[in-house]
Amino acid sequence: MTRSATQTLTHPLGDLEVREETTPVHAADRPDAAWWRQAVIYQIYPRSWADADGDGIGDLPGITSRLPHLRALGVDAIWLSPFYTSPQADAGYDVADYRDVDPIFGTLADADAMIARAHELGLKVIVDMVPNHSSDEHVWFQAALSAGPGSAERERYMFREGRGEHGELPPNNWESVFGGAAWTRVTEADGLPGQWYLHLFDPKQPDFNWEHPEVRAEFESILRFWLDRGVDGFRVDVAHGLIKQQGLPDTEEERTVMLGHAEHDDDATPAAAQPEDAPRIDHTKRSPMWDQDGVHEVYRAWRRILESYGTPDRILCAEAWVEPQERAVKYVRSDEMHQAFNFDFLTSSWIAEDLKAVITSSLQAADSVGAPSTWVLSNHDVVRHASRLGFAPGTPRMNGISATDPQPDRALGLRRARAATALMLSLPGGAYIYQGEELGLPDSTDMPAEFRQDPTFARTNGAETGRDGCRVPMPWSADGPSLGFGPGANTWLPQPDVYAHYAVDQQEGVAGSTLELYRALLANRRRLSLGTGSLTWVDGYAADVVALTNGSDQRERVLVVANLGDAPVALPEDAEVVVASGPLEDGLVPSDTTVWAIWS
Ligand code: GLC
Ligand code: MG
């Protein structure tokens, strides 16, 4: 078929005329575009990937030993959640020493060995940087506590006098993302209650004062420390935090929402599906704690440091839960970060029109600043997409699933998850994969309360289940202690029995397994350089189908058809199927299935 011509598809339920739109929504990148403009980055959650020493918690030597799994999977890079010295009050996102490895994960030498092994296997290494807050066990915070009010040491954090006659009320009305007040009052040297300090997350995560030059200098030095050890970049935690509005005014928001954590109805959720009492975010009101303009100067300085390390590029990826997209893409202007997670895609409902809208707006917003878009469906903060998609489209997104909640339909969730991933990996730009999704892992949805460790659970008295369900240790083999996670029988979070069925050794080499699907998707994405392709919508299919082409002057055009409807849909006769997220039925694409086909 010639480009843009109409093609008639014969279909048992009635013929269909399909046609590629004349203008792409996104033009192809240069074929020699920098690696990060198209990279697939695999997120390792170090506590839960592989445990070498058998203490039930994953560690760096465990990671190093399992890296060949990722080489075989076909990803470009790994991103590791924090493995730094930490009391683990927020699973390592509470850092006490940014320049050392926590003993539960190993040593600095183990980090060096992990980086070297990854590089040997052709994998780049991205580490997590947590600049919004430290642990309360960081030497600076300990010094601030003992130095007392008015001291230079307290200036590096956000200490304030309380309100009320005796300072007994917090300085403002801000709430912690994890529940409860965002302020904790300290006991001063005289044994009396004194100042309050700000923590947007757990009380064990005091916020830094980013107006302080020493804080800025310290983080620039930490970046150099890890760059000098050979890392290829940083994922920047809570990148939209750091700077707070001058004067710390009360917020008008009912509660502090960081979309990753709290229950939230995204705009993409169809209005009809939104329950009346769902929390809403009013984007016209700027929050005093998030996305302040001053934060961009910090990242410009960081970019200059990374660029001083030459090529291949060292990169910054923002975890910035910022809306609308026009503000979010400010983080990826050409002199700031390279990438930002696309949480609009992650939070989109399994509804074709919503997905199309989000793909179009993501590409256009990123293009407006010359950045690649990124795509992500799961991470360590959200319910895994194999579970999330096991609910009816439009169900409000949950912060964890417990045994007393409605349970997802596991088979349906997996089927949709495979289709969603096949759609995601066909899109131009970068993509993120969260450990275990290549196995189709569901969340643990019946974890007994006594095992729960996410601070959200305790701080909301169990009202929010929290993120433990997506953080359960990986099953590598159906037999053996802890399903091959490590030599010990116990794991820091219990593995549900059903995980044995998803183990790597149950899927390796098995036709149709989720692991083999991911391998095929990644191999074909690389072979066809889909990451640098153009994107053009294909019209003519029913409204519950996402159909697009990914093109380039250098190679054949790829047609992608994701069927979110009930009725099977036809493919053009001259389309040659490359990979499908599930079996076709009489050549038709069945419900909740995505197909890639060469369409020349
Ligand atoms: C980010 C991390 C999350 C952590 C929070 C506070 O959202 O992804 O796991 O709890 O920041 O550091
Ligand atoms: Mg261990």
From TrEMBL:
Residues 14-24 have a biased composition (Basic and acidic residues). The keyword Hydrolase applies. The keyword Glycosyltransferase does not apply. It comes from Terrabacter terrigena. Residues 1-24, 264-287 are annotated as: Disordered. Keywords: Hydrolase. Residues 43-471 form the Glycosyl hydrolase family 13 catalytic domain. Residues 1-10 have a biased composition (Polar residues). This is Alpha-amylase family glycosyl hydrolase.
